[in-house]
Design brief:
This protein is an all-alpha fold and 387 residues long. It is built from 16 helices and no strands. The relative contact order is 0.12.
């Protein structure tokens, strides 16, 4: 019996990862299977922590009652409630931007960037950042003539959007925690880390003649490993699409959570996001918008065709800031509005498809490991019986 088992190939043969556009049925099957497993694990977790769940539920009910029941507390609760919801919204968008091991929704381009651009255009047009509240921050309009105007600078605008920028950056820092905990748990339990890039770097022997992307990954790993807090801070403070690898490295090296999260929070919520804010503010200053209008109009052949909808959009935005645009005007009917809405829809669809494919591949790897582990165990048992 043992001789028959010895003839069986026990080495794991890796399957080609499923792709949604090549194998839609198989990918969707794996996705729903993995989704069911995740929901089952969540239910088991909640069932095992009944006391904590009940306590949190009672606190949530109390908070809802305080926020919604009329009473003398409303004059104190209402301002705090609006600010709290505003902060939670940007934290949520920040988490969406970085969570998912590279499949995050780029909410800076979709939400924070346009918001900062709107505030910048309004500040230059209105001559102030003291916008009426409400409707700000949901809608930006110029204040009345009784509000004094003052000199607008880049720092005035940055100070106006500092809260939402910080909260969005804090959300991106929170979104970097899953890779860290995944690698940390794998290291403590002795299991393999399920990340192709990290495993490729760990198994790399010949480091000569590598492409620049691979050299940057190696450099980032060395910086994080040798510099600790300041290395993590450096990697988190620059636009770095490969930061998931730094988080995995930190988890694998068992860097303390406080050290990792503090460095990531400072780097992303203070340094990196401020660089992005400064870039948006500089692009949408009044002088640069004028130069952009002139540059578009000067393009040979298509310049007038492109500049017409762009100028029309800017004019409607200026009218809206001064309250001269009717409320029933739909901005989505403009050419730029249609294009922007199409961009948002495309990115959201891609984000959802990436989640489906990611969960499907996770189930595929789980089935592949389970397929070969019984063979190895059977081989060991056979050897024992034969001896």
């Amino acid at each position: 019996m043992s001789h028959d088992l010895e003839k069986e190939p026990l080495t794991e043969q890796k399957e080609t990862p499923v792709r949604l556009w090549r194998e839609p049925c198989k990918t969707c099957y794996y996705f729903f299977w993995q989704l069911w497993d995740e929901l089952r694990r969540l239910f088991e977790f909640l069932r095992g922590h009944k006391t904590v769940i009940c306590g949190c539920s009672v606190m949530l009910i109390i908070v809802i009652l305080v926020l919604n029941v009329d009473g003398p507390q409303q004059k104190y609760v209402a301002p705090v409630n609006s600010v709290l919801l505003w902060c939670l919204w940007w934290i949520f968008l920040g988490i969406l931007s970085s969570v998912g091991l590279g499949t995050g929704l780029h909410t800076f381009l979709l939400y924070l960037g346009p918001h900062i651009a709107t505030v910048t255009l309004a500040a230059w047009e209105c001559g102030t950042v003291d916008f009426p509240e409400p409707p700000y921050p949901e809608t930006v309009i110029c204040p009345g003539e009784d509000v004094p105007r003052h000199e607008i600078t880049m720092w005035t605008i940055i100070n106006k959007v500092k809260l939402e920028a910080f909260m969005w950056g804090a959300g991106t820092a929170i979104g970097e925690l899953p890779p860290y905990f995944m690698a940390r748990t794998a290291r403590l339990t002795g299991s393999d880390i399920d990340d192709a890039e990290f495993n490729e770097l760990q198994n790399l022997t010949d480091k000569s003649g590598l492409p620049w992307s691979m050299r940057f990954k190696l450099w980032m790993q060395r910086v994080v490993e040798r510099a600790g807090f300041f290395g993590i801070l450096l990697c988190a403070s620059i636009p770095n699409p490969l930061f998931d690898l730094a988080g995995i490295t930190c988890g694998y090296l068992l860097i303390p959570f406080a050290t990792f999260f503090a460095a990531v929070l400072i780097g992303k919520a203070i340094f990196k996001v401020q660089l992005q804010v400064v870039m948006i503010v500089l692009i949408f200053t009044a002088d640069n918008i004028t130069r952009l209008e002139e540059g578009i109009a000067s393009i040979p052949g298509i310049g007038p065709w492109l500049s017409a909808p762009f100028n029309d959009y800017l004019e409607k935005q200026r009218d809206k800031l001064h309250g001269s645009t009717p409320d029933d005007v739909n901005e989505g009917t403009t050419v730029l509005g249609i294009l922007f809405n199409a961009l948002i829809a495309t990115m959201i669809i891609f984000f959802l498809l990436s989640i489906i494919q990611g969960l499907a591949r996770q189930k595929q790897k789980e089935l592949q490991r389970a397929r070969y582990s019984p063979l190895s165990e059977g081989s060991d048992c056979g050897g024992d019986i034969d001896s």
